[in-house]
Amino acid sequence: MSNPSFLHIHGTIISTYTRIVQTVAEEAGLSWKITATPANSEENQRRHPFHKVPTVEVDGLQLFESVAICQYIDNAHNGGVLQPADHQCRAEMDRWISIANNYLFPVAEHGLLMPHLAHNVLKTPLRSDIIEAALPEIARHLGIICDRIEETPFFAGPKFSLADIFVYCILRPIQLTSEGEHLITPLLPLRHWLNKIGQRDSIIATRWPIEQD
Q1: Which end of the chain is more exposed for a tag (fewer CB within 10 A), N or C?
Q2: Hey, which bits of 12-157 come out as E strands?
Q3: Closest CA relative to residue 37, chosen from 25, 22, 48
Q4: 3-class DSSP state for residue 49?
Q5: What are the beta bridge partners of residue 6?
Q6: 184 located within any domain
Q7: Do 197 and 203 contact (CB within 8 A), yes or no?
Q8: Which residues touch 189 (CB under 8 Å, ≥6 apart)?
Q9: Does the reported pTM lie above 0.70?
């Protein structure tokens, strides 16, 4: 757009989906700031009818749901370059975003990441039983994702797309755990893809403090 715009993100600062939105904004060259807004806060309950984060304000709009937010940013501020024009590639992009959101993220979030977060932040005992129960399903998902990236350079096909941002931002926290790193290490195509995507300026600009140590 010709007039400068600004993206105001409301959500959890260290969050997979906040990072996804931040990364898409970086790809579009769109300036952003984030206001820490817990999902269960009264403010967020006014912003999102299902009490999820993040939500955003941009171009006079209030938007929620990360897929819609990212598509809007890419269409309005980036010429839609992160969304393939080819119908088959577009279907692949949609497919892998859906896989990442509906299958990989829930089991990794509840079965691996939240137990570590509770242990590291709240100092509760590490629920190894929950982690061990989730690891076989996480491993199966990682194998399916690795099979795809053996077939093609990016998840939608020959070009980087929104699917790569969603998959990377969901996979990276898994990789930052000892269990996740153990599962990913033997998956060489997936490791190479993670390293490649991790070098993009938008990914570097949205790194979490734990990645900068």
Answers
A1: C
A2: 31-36, 55-58, 61-64
A3: 48
A4: coil
A5: 31
A6: yes
A7: yes
A8: 146, 149, 150
A9: yes
